[in-house]
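Students often ask why we bother encoding 3D structure as a string. The short answer is that it lets us treat folding as translation between two languages. Here is a chain of 366 residues written in the first language.
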Amino acid sequence: MRSPFLTPKNDIMKKTLISLLALLLVAQIWAVDSSTSLQTYYATANGLSDNELRLALHNRIKSHTDVGYGGLSTLLRWADTENADGQHIIDIYTNCTFTVSGDISWSSSGSVGAGMNREHTVPQSWFNSAAPMKADAFHVYATDCKANNNRSSYLYGEFTGDSTAYSSNKCAETGKLSKGTDNSIAPYTYNNQTYAPTETWSGKVYEPADEYKGDLARSYFYMATCYADKCAGWSGGAFGNDNNGLDDYTAELMLKWHRLDPVSEKELIRNEVIYGNPLYNKSDKKQLNRNPFIDYPELVEYIWGDKKDVPVTLSALESLYANEGGTTDLENLSLDQHKTSKVLVGSQIYIVREGAVYTLTGSRVK
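And here it is in the second language, the structure alphabet:
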């Protein structure tokens, strides 16, 4: 049956077939318009697991646009503001409030709340400030400059001892830096199963607030995938050949954080902004690639988790985005006025935002 949401451009694609090159270009532009094309976007990963799956995803997302270090001032304005409003920065390290009216201005020092800097969750020194990692927005966030300096190039981690954190009369740092050097990952329960990580890190670590641990984990999984051909040679201790691009300690830590802090509305929007969805990104700065671990969070389990020996079936993962009740008709879709979410309607994924329904490329359909 012909889809009622088939676009005129897709009609032309199907009927005209002018040239292979034209088809490839149009297919790339419309690659994430529905659940079927999301599966097409990641099609080469279907049926794979473990490192073969990571390498297939690597080949899909590695060729992206480098917006440049200066371009992050524009891109992060949309990626890291509330509901991509381009004004109110969400800081993953503090409870500070930052407001911008244009491209973000950066500060290199100052007390908490004095200004922002570009926080490389994978520190630049680990990869010698090389491109395109330096300006890859999937791991760079706008954060308070004091908290940025406090985190420095320390690994992420968990600890129970004394910590160093800073505050001002304006706001406070929510992340914390350990003073001790004996750090272990606490046991946890996920899907009714208890996990007891065994790896430790003998050095200071920085522990962010629980609310953003999953965000950072998916940033690390992205980096170990997008740069699968490079990350084993990075310094710093987090990346390597031990566990599909990650050190065993970091793999255990990030798997825990990913499991306990699911993909949020903020991440869904951030993924669309960085990709270049015009519904959220109002600028000309876009990477034109996606974070597969936001699109399909369970892929993490097939590479680093409990399903490493199980071939993935992408179509079976679409239920992660299904709306309650399994609506098959847009007319019967109940809209939440105050929440941004992905919903599966029939065979297509849509974004529901502020009482309206959009395709993943920003076209409003209801």
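Translate back mentally: DSSP finds twelve helices and 16 strands in the chain. Keep this in mind for the problem set.
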